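Give me the 3D structure for PD-(D/E)XK endonuclease-like domain-containing protein.
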Amino acid sequence: MKFLNKVIDELLQQNADLSEFNIVLPGKRPVVFIRRILEDRNYSGFLPTFFTIEELIDRIAGQQEIQGIALWLFAFDVYKGLNLIPNDDFAEFLKWFPTLQKDWDDMLKFSDSDTAVLQYMFDEERIKEWAQDLGEDDDTPRKKFLNFWKNMNVFLPVLKKKLQEKEWATSGMINEAAKANISDFAKNTKQQYVFCGFNAFTPAEEKLVRSMLQWNKAQCFFQADRYYFDDERQEAGKFLRNHKTWKEFDDNRAFRWIEDDFSQPKNIKVYEVSGNITQTKILPEIFEAIEDKTYSNTAVVLLDENLLPASLDVMHGVRNLNITMGFPLKNLSFSNAVKQLFYLQKQLEKNRSSYYYRDIFPILEELPKSAEDELVINNFKAKIEERNIVYISKKLLQELLGDLSYYNLLIRAESANRYLDVLIEFCRKIKWLEIDDIQYENVSHFENAFRIIKNQLAPYQFEIRMETLEILINQHINSESIDFQGEPLRGLQIMGLLETRLLNFENVILLSVNEGKLPLGNSQNTYIPFDIRRVFDLHTFLENDSIYAYHFYRLIQDAKNVHLLFNALSSGVNTGEKSRFITQIEMESSHPIEHVIIENSSEPIVTQPIEISKTDVVMQRLEKWKEKVSASHLTSYLYNPIDFYLSKILNTSESDEIEEELSVKNYGNLVHYTLQEVYEVLKGKVLKESDLKDSVKAIDQYIETAIEKLKHQPEFYEKGMNFIHKAIAKKVIENILTYDLELIKDGNTLEILDIEKRFEGVDFYLEDHNKISFFGFIDRIDRLNGTLRIIDYKTAKIKNLTVKIDESNVEEYFHNSDRKQALQLCIYQYVVQNLPEFWGMPVETGIWSFAEAKKGVVSLQFEKGDIDDAMKSVKSLIEEILNPDINFVEEIKAYSNN
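Predicted structure for PD-(D/E)XK endonuclease-like domain-containing protein (898 residues):
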């Protein structure tokens, strides 16, 4: 730490007892490094006193700071007492006050008078200059702007007065009070102060430093470099160049120090990376090139805090890590669950009768849970998925989740205050569960936030709504982060840019060096226009850019190896544009810069088809399978042998998922089950016209029965696409019944023999007296004019029912998934011909497609060959499945635009 070493050496030359000095720093972090430097110097005296400049300003002001929730509640109480129009409720107030408060603090810190700024904002003549005619309508943006600042001219002075009466102050008020007390403080203090490594000051801070210098009670050490100090165009040196012009720096007191470190040899690499997370994947390669494997002189600076988890993932090989930056609380799982809880409460205010399953599932997944809760949740999910319940009634939720330890979080809260109590109690309980440290910290932060809000609300009489409580919690949590503990004096340092102040490293690695991240750019959240900020010397994004420029150049000026990574992909808010600071170095510095392009290859991964060999265990399972072979098993094998292996050998099945829109499969089941109900009543009868007419009238009733069979809720079909699917299903069923009715009207004799006919134990012989047994269900068996019809229902259109089989293709004819419909019908025909009750009857097999219901049954036709030839091909297919030398090989489907 070159700069800190110089400061300590200078102070030790002046006085061997450093306890005489008060060292004022931009932040707390350099203190541990100063202590190490003193230890290396074998310093044995008392340590100096350390302050941040904010702490010193607070001490001079002598006021107690109020911020966050306490300030918002107090300010709203004041606002309500003024009866201003619009008379915003607390939720509306919170949408604008936090931003206004920052603007007000800027007025108090940087302008001579916040009153002057407020009056200028309300100056109608000034507004007319850019707005011309304000208009009479209160809803016009110009009029609303004027009314807003008219109210603020009343509200903020009263708020200031009320805060002063309580001896409270915002950070801006503290700066203002300190400014008034600085002259007396500088004159009367007996202590010596050392200001180290500052760049930009507020007016109060500048007045403090200069007053102390004038009274010879302070020294000031700056860390500047000629590269950006001497060049007027370099924004990084903007504030330092101004400080050098202070009259306090003269022949007797030099401006210290301006170094020439940036021009020293450096290895600078710029990495253009395709993807945000991809930047972290390059870190191991960069570490590999660093000679000192303790990495004690290496810093990884994350300009995007969201990259911290991904960065840690790739640093598992680094023994000592010190994380200086905090990880935002809002990005952790418990935070997401709390957001979901409040969203659920808002939904319950709108819909008090049921719960949308997507509002419940994420909460159950994200919240920490006990083993008992896990069982309740798994049972709940299984029941909901099995019954495909999209909207869960309150009664059913109570029935399935009533034993959940935090069930009261899921029911509509009596009030926001009561819900706070429930949340606090929940956090208290789950901290006793076995949860990891980060989650424990996450829950603890939230419990603390809930308690703070409850305590702060206590003195006030107004009742807050759930929406307001959510805003309060979000505002509080957005500024919170989880701090990590580590060893700051050894190992790799992972930091944010502001944490690098006063520190220097030999190896510096910056991630996300993108425009919008470094510098932040024109992203100020403010109500004060740019031109007015300039008039009153309030900081604009330009000053902020200069501050960030200084931090960037100061960090790399002493480094030997600099790695700058930026995300070149434009997505979301990321423009894919590298920081202009990189461009400045490329254009203006004398250093050779190596450019590296890292592609996140999007080429498809070349995969080999999955291949499963038929081991002894697999062959044993196949022997078992032979006892119950269905036509669908064979079509599954044709489609993809691996699917057959997974379902028939391993006995796995796809997990149920809740359908918000009826799937093709369940649409087919709805029609299928309805037809089953319709014809079950007619089974064993020679049909009459009246039978079918009565069935048509009762379709709705039959559909409701089918819905119960599917375990769906009737409400599932009441609106949207599902209502349309149900209407289409009804039309298909009408078409099938009408087709049968027309057959009877035309004088045909139609008798329903069986519905969902189950068969099993129908033997089919292979080679060497080996055999399998067919089993399955035939959707419908009827007799039309004396001919037995075997009918299979299909949702899909009919394909390839004309069989052309001869000696040349008999072996492989059904080894083709395009012929699976014909394969199934051939097996059904073979089975029926072997069932005693149907011996001697002429048999016809066919498919009735729901997609073409008006066509009726389309029969299997043999243009070449017969059923015996077809079964030879079926036998060949079965023998292939049973052949131990033929592995199960995945069928990879080619992508097609057709």
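The CA atoms of residues 324 and 506 lie 18 Å apart. Let me know if you want a second pass.
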